[in-house]
């Protein structure tokens, strides 16, 4: 017993003939308590027989059970011209869900049913009843097919193929190789190499003023696709009349310069756009025009 507890027994108590139940009373009348004191008891054990045995968790022991039952049925109903043949095996152990195999054939139809927490088809495919998914492991990859509600970290996956090391609840469209989702774009495929691209929103820009002086073009903006990391921009002069780039390392920029009376300037610029994630680069070429709009 732990400190503070003592073992008390009451033995050789003979029950009257016909006794069907007993009542245990714990009497503290002989104890001496200081003000504010308390008393407690634990591990009460009532058992048949004249001698008390050491306390044991018999309740837990009795709760453990295991059984296998088999049922079969074959009936022919001549009056209604119907017949049924059924066979059922059920294995059940305490603490687990039962596993059931059932086969039924009747005049109205037939079926085979499997019921269990997990149902295996061969060595590497299992149906998981809790998630309604069919999971097949092939080497270090797994294919998961959802047969019920969507699964995954975002609860939007219907099918997923990827590394077997990723848990079902952590699967996403980005850490899988291929799959289908319940939301747009409904499919994903990370096995196809994605080509990085850069495109200007217009092929050329222009700017004008009335009379000689400084002038700049409208804004031109470059958009990118399939970038896997940060993107850098490097604008530079190619050819033509002298102009400058107002934002040489930005996706959006203008071109500026000065014009004389009645002058029109033309120049070509290029921007080297690089995806630092993949190392892929694209060069974009645009034209710029600056002019004096004064009437002749």
Give an account of the 3D structure.
- It comes from Brevundimonas nasdae.
- This is Ig-like domain-containing protein.
- Helices cover 2% and strands 46% of the residues.
- By secondary structure, it is an all-beta fold.
- It has 3 domains: 66-115, no CATH class; 119-189, no CATH class; 197-292, Sandwich (Immunoglobulin-like).
- A hairpin with a 5-residue loop joins strand 10 (178-181) and strand 11 (187-189).
- It is elongated.
- 12% of the residues are buried.
In short:
This is Ig-like domain-containing protein. The chain is mostly beta strands. It is built from one helix and 21 strands.
Keyphrases for this structure?
mainly beta; single chain; 4-stranded antiparallel sheet; 296 residues; Immunoglobulin-like; 3 domains; elongated; 7-stranded antiparallel sheet
Instruction: Encode the helix/strand succession as letters.
Output: HEEEEEEEEEEEEEEEEEEEEE
Helix/strand structural class? mainly beta
> What's the count of strands?
21
Looking at CATH, which topology of the largest domain would you report?
Immunoglobulin-like
Gyration radius, rounded:
41 Å
* Helix content, binned percent: under 10%
User: Helical element count?
Assistant: 1
The CATH superfamily of the largest domain is known as Immunoglobulins
For the biggest sheet, the summary is: 7 strands, antiparallel
Q: Biggest sheet: strands side by side, in what order?
A: 5-6-7-8-9-10-11
CATH class categorisation of the largest domain:
Mainly Beta
The backbone outline, from C-alpha atoms, is elongated
Mean of pLDDT: 87
* Tally of distinct domains: 3
- Report the β-strand fraction as a percent range: over 45%
Q: What is the end-to-end distance?
A: 113 Å
Architecture of the largest domain, according to CATH?
Sandwich
Poorly predicted runs: none
């Amino acid at each position: 017993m732990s400190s503070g507890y003592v073992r008390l027994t009451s033995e050789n108590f003979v029950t009257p003939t016909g006794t069907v139940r007993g009542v245990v009373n714990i009497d503290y009348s002989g104890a001496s308590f200081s003000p504010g004191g308390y008393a407690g008891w634990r591990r009460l054990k009532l058992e048949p027989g004249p001698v008390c045995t050491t306390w044991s968790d018999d309740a837990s022991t009795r709760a453990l059970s295991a059984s296998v039952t088999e049922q079969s049925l074959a009936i022919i109903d001549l009056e209604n011209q119907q017949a049924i043949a059924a066979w059922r095996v059920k294995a059940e152990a305490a603490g687990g869900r039962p596993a059931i195999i059932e086969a039924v054939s009747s005049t109205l139809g037939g079926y085979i049913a499997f019921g269990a927490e997990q149902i295996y088809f061969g060595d590497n495919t299992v149906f998981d009843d809790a998630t309604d998914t069919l999971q097949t492991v092939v080497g270090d990859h797994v294919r998961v097919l959802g047969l019920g509600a969507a699964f995954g970290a975002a609860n939007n996956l219907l099918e997923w193929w990827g590394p077997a090391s990723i848990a079902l609840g952590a699967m996403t469209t980005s850490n899988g190789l291929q799959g289908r989702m319940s939301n747009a774009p409904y499919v994903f495929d990370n096995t196809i190499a994605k080509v990085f691209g850069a495109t200007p929103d217009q092929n050329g820009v222009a700017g004008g003023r009335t009379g000689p002086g400084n002038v700049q073009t409208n804004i031109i903006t470059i958009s990118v696709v399939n970038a896997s990391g940060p993107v850098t921009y490097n604008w530079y002069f190619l050819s033509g009349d002298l102009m400058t780039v107002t934002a040489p390392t930005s996706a959006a920029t203008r071109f500026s310069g000065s014009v004389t009376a009645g002058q029109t300037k033309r120049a070509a610029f290029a921007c080297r756009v690089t995806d630092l994630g993949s190392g892929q680069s694209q060069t974009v070429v645009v034209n710029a025009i600056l002019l004096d709009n004064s009437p002749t």
